[in-house]
Amino acid sequence: MPPPAAAPIVPLILAGGSGTRLWPLSRQSYPKQFAPLHGGESLFAAAARRFAAPGWAPPVVVTGTDFRFIAADQLAAAGIAPGALIIEPSARNTAPAILAGTLAVARERPEALVLAAPADHLIADAAGLRAAVARAAGAARAGRIVAFGIRPTRAETGYGWIEPAAAARADGPPVPLRRFVEKPAAAAAAAMFAAGRHLWNAGLFLYTPRRLIDAFRAQAPGILAAVETAVARAAPDLGFLRLDPAAWAAVEAISFDHAIMEHDAGLSVQRYDGAWSDLGDWQAVWRAGGPDTDGNVLQGAATAIGCRGSLLRAEGAGLALVGIGLEDMLAVAMPDAVLVAPRARAQEVRAAVAALTARGAAQATTFPRDHRPWGWFDRLAAGDRFQVKRIVVHPGAALSLQSHEHRAEHWIVVAGTARVTLDGTARTVGPNESVYIPQGARHRLENPGPGEMVLIEVQTGSYLGEDDITRYEDRYARGPDGSG
Amino acid sequence: MPPPAAAPIVPLILAGGSGTRLWPLSRQSYPKQFAPLHGGESLFAAAARRFAAPGWAPPVVVTGTDFRFIAADQLAAAGIAPGALIIEPSARNTAPAILAGTLAVARERPEALVLAAPADHLIADAAGLRAAVARAAGAARAGRIVAFGIRPTRAETGYGWIEPAAAARADGPPVPLRRFVEKPAAAAAAAMFAAGRHLWNAGLFLYTPRRLIDAFRAQAPGILAAVETAVARAAPDLGFLRLDPAAWAAVEAISFDHAIMEHDAGLSVQRYDGAWSDLGDWQAVWRAGGPDTDGNVLQGAATAIGCRGSLLRAEGAGLALVGIGLEDMLAVAMPDAVLVAPRARAQEVRAAVAALTARGAAQATTFPRDHRPWGWFDRLAAGDRFQVKRIVVHPGAALSLQSHEHRAEHWIVVAGTARVTLDGTARTVGPNESVYIPQGARHRLENPGPGEMVLIEVQTGSYLGEDDITRYEDRYARGPDGSG
């Protein structure tokens, strides 16, 4: 039952996280919400698609500055035009992100309902979730902040729990919320699970902008003032709304639960009984993967011989993973990084990232693929005096006009058409043709065509760092040097 | 104490194995003896270098047809000129290989001693081993076949054991050999280990050619006749001696132990107390790697967090392996294949190879690097309508004059100088320069320079298989089609 067209629900998708517990798949440069962690689509794209339905407004997305092009690319690929793409200049946890997104909604659609939703959770039944939101809409319009509570399936100590004030029904309206129990001890979790009244906090919240702003005014007036300034001074930037960095830097970093929900007296909870996972660590991915009769989950080109209770995941074409005799283990293999651990120690993956960071390994934080405003590139290979990249340029996009002091570049077009400007002269280069960019030459690469343009770039020279670039002109307003 | 110069010892290096128990490092296309399994040098190169000393003749090498260029390359890189490189047209186990090599030695140096030695064992103390051989030389010259016995360090059931007829001393001459005990049961191994008189069979044998031929005449006359024919009809081939394929196909495949040693009455054993490993499986690699105080062996860019008793090995630049909380596990990671198993199940790696073979995975048998008579190439990347290779051409070497029906090639020279012949016209291409080979064009690539020539090849086209090649001329006498 969609709400009236006059008051659409705005999905406010929180996509600023940079979790490391799913390393090596999730890395600082490309966190889990943008990875195809479960199925072929990213969690972020799936979250946006979940609310692309009648009665729902286009999504408002809040994400980090490093992820803005990834988010825009993935929405475009999913055919979803966002209502706004809001850039956090730095990570400030969920309370400021929810407030900033809500203030942006309030300017355009003060009458709307807002559903704040994490970008990195798994909810298979989109229609069922939308129906649950519809059941909660009346209470939200009446001035409640409505949390969504998942029916627990185990005595999980890693989640926040919700205690309803009355028996919550999935097929009824929300009930008042008595209290939050954040990451309970094992005994407390077991007791709650046994009693069967408590729910898991799904991190989804439904409210009117006015109600949320009032809650911040009451519970966190300092945050409200700083975020209002950051939104008021936000600068439009290539289709993004960039929050004012100075004002944003002054905002307290705090979760929405701690800042508001644990203190607000007008909360309700809507029970939702559909399948849900926060995919918070590899243990959760194993669980959500649907273990087979041996308890194994195999993803990608993985082979299990005499294994039980294990997650074997191979990422990337041309990579084979074989496990023999594994018991309750997880093995995640990517072409540049491999993780092996007992499933029960999935939480310690952070330690792995810390150890790799300490030894200066790029894999700790960075993927072989780099996303840029014009598209992306993969580092395919590097060796003494050469580097090979695959470069994909979006239709209509262009790299900056640039030159390199230390390297020459050879471009071989594989698909689409490139327009190459070289020392002032432009020409068109088609599939199977190549162009040579000598050291020092001013050059620009554009894709004038209707589809993606793919080329192989072979760099040769004594120094091949990304910082060997001088920019003369850039439609994405990037500086004269730095990576390109 | 080297033997008299008149009777040098000829190392006969058996390099035809294709073991799969060290997958993914050892594969059918590049078995373990050619891999840098322990340290930077391959086991084969180390085996050849072990006997490059005064009083020793150049090595005679027996290897498979697929490995001949690898063996030749590695000897050249080690600065060792072989006495002969004998090619087995097919694998026939050790008895025929030892006999073929010995017959070849007998033609040139009938007075020599021959030391048959596996190419894939680890023996750190080369001088110590040569001294042990010198101690055994008198007995061998007097007509004994001398086996070498390693002092056992555990009740190993995977090895063959030797029972000396008298107490064997490492610092004395050989003693008569009473019997072989092939892969004993656990109780028998424990009893032998406790008694302390038995030794492990190292697979090293010292003898005169005449004595060995007589032994085959007595114990395996059919093998002798067939192998004599295969050697008599062997064809010189680009510096190799290729055994006659038809005669060789008729030779019984059987181990030297089974064919000769278990039946011969004139055997001795020389005890050798130095460190030795057959590196027969990952368990053996872990043991030989020298476990640290936690029992871990870390090789390559491997990180262990809270691990015990585990082998973590990362092969290849740009690949990081992290183990968390592993107990007695092995994890071997390569860019295209990863193996994870309990150390105690190292023997089951064969099953992994079989499983991968069954699912048609190239990684079961093939490496990303291909060795050819002119050098080698790596497949760096492949995608829709393109493939990128790094090609390394040895000084003075040349690829065949060839053409491709379905693909064009772009060559970018990274190091050295290429001589490129394109539709009859030759030109020289230096570092940073490129050449375009259109579809259908007759072309040849040569390295006229004194060092390795390295180029990046980008293939584009609708079909990029190795079999899209027509050869017009080939100095390595390969056929007009097939991979090149």
Describe the structure.
The structure is a homodimer of 484-residue chains. The model of chain A is unreliable at 1-5 (pLDDT under 50). The longest helix of chain A is centred in the N-terminal third of the chain and has 16 residues, at 126-141. By secondary structure, chain A is α/β, with parallel strands linked by helices. Chain A is built from eleven helices and 30 strands. Helix content of chain A is 23%, strand content 32%. The first copy, chain A, starts with 8 loop residues before the first strand and ends in an 11-residue tail after the last strand. In chain A, the strands form seven sheets. In chain A, strands 20-21-22-29-24-27 form a six-stranded antiparallel β-sheet. In chain A, strands 6-9-7-8-12 form a five-stranded mixed beta barrel. Chain A has a four-stranded mixed β-sheet with strand order 14-16-18-19, covered by helices on one side. In chain A, helix 3 (94-108) crosses helix 6 (209-219) and helix 6 crosses helix 7.
**Main sheet characteristics of chain A:** 6 strands, antiparallel
Catalogue the unreliable spans of chain A.
Answer: 1-5
* Fraction in helix of chain A: 10-25%
Which descriptor suits the 3D outline of chain A? globular
**Oligomerization status of the protein chains:** homodimer
Instruction: Give the percentage of residues in beta strands of chain A.
Output: 25-35%
Tally of helical runs of chain A:
11
Biggest interface and residues each: A-B, 61 and 61 residues
Number of strands of chain A: 30
Termini gap of chain A: 48 Å
Mean pLDDT across residues of chain A: 92
Backbone CA Rg of chain A:
24 Å
User: What order do the strands of the largest sheet of chain A run in, or round the barrel if closed?
Assistant: 20-21-22-29-24-27
Structural class of chain A: alpha/beta
